[in-house]
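Bug report

Summary: C-alpha cells for Peroxidase differ between web form and batch submission.
Environment: batch mode, default settings.
Steps: 1) Submit the sequence below via batch. 2) Compare with the web form result.

Sequence submitted:
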Amino acid sequence: MATSSCKTMLLMAFVVTAALSTASLAQSPLQNNFYGSSCPQAEETVRSVTEGIVRNDPTMGAAFMRLFFHDCFVRGCDASILLDPTSNNAQVEKKAIALRGYDAANKIKAAVESVCPGVVSCADILAFAARDSAVVSGGFASFAMPSGRRDGVVSNFIDVLQNIPSPIFKLQELISNFAAKGLSVDDLVTLSAAHSFGQAHCSFVNGRLYPTVDPTMNNTYDAALKTVCPAPGTGGGDPVVNNNRVTDPNVLSNQYYSNLVTGQGLFVSDQQLHGGQGGQQLRRRCDVDGAVRGGAGEDGRHPGAHRDGRPGQEVRQRRQ
C-alpha cells in the first residue's frame, strides 16, 4: 500500500508527465473534464476497464505507467507509441522497444469507442489508463487528469532511440536528457520513482554484475541479483528481477528512495540519483523515506507547471 508520501510522489509524477503534451502555444491548454459534454462516460469507461485489467493481472499497473511515460517522452503525449506499422512506415516507435500493454490499450479504446465513437483521443485514453492503473496499484483515491490531448500521426523508430533515457546513463547524461524536454532536476527525481514498481530483464542489469560488480552497489544486493541473473553467455536466459527490492513489484512503494541511500538501486541511472555531489543534491530533495518535498518544484510550483506543450507537432484533433 502506498504511504501518503508515495501518493504525493505519484501525483507529482503525473503532473510532470502530463505536462509533456503535444499542444502548441496556439492550441487550447489541457483541462479537467475535457469530455464532460461530448462524452461524459469517457473517464468512467476507461476506469472500469483499466481497473478490471489490473486486478486480473497486477503487473499491468507498471506496464500502463511505462507505456504512458514512453509515449510522452518521445514526441509528447500523443499516442504515437500506439501507431502500427504501415506500408509507408514499417519502423514505428513500438518496433524500437518491447513494451507491454498494447492489447490492453486497444481493449480500453474499443470500450470508449462503443459509447462515444470518434470523440476521445487515444492520447487521453492512455493518460486516463495510466492514472487509473496507478490508483489501483497504489491503493489511494483517484485524482483529476487534465485532458484534451491530440493524437499524433507521426511515429518513428529512431525517435525512441534518440529520446528515451538509457538505464546506463550517468547523472549528467540524465540531467541533460531531461533538460532537453524542459524538465528540471526535481522532475528527474520524481519521474525516476516510477521504478518503485515493476520488473526488468537481467540484460539491463548484468553490466553492473559481470565481470566485476559496480562499486556503488550494496554487497548483499549484488549477491541477491546474481542468484537470479546468470552471467552472460552461460545459457541462463534473460530472467526478470524486481525494480524495487524488498517490496511487492506490483505495489507502489516509497522504498525506492531508501534503497538508493543503501546502494540498492537496480539500474545505473537509479543509483546515480544518490551517488556523487550532484546526486546528493538530488537525494536531498526527498527525505530518506522517499517523501518528495511538499509537492512543489524549486520555484515553488508543481513540477511541469512552467512548461507549455511542444510546438510544431503534427496532430489530429478530437472533438470536445
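Above is the batch result. After comparison, the two runs are identical; trailing whitespace caused the diff. The chain has two domains: 4-164+305-316, 185-283. The radius of gyration is 19 Å.
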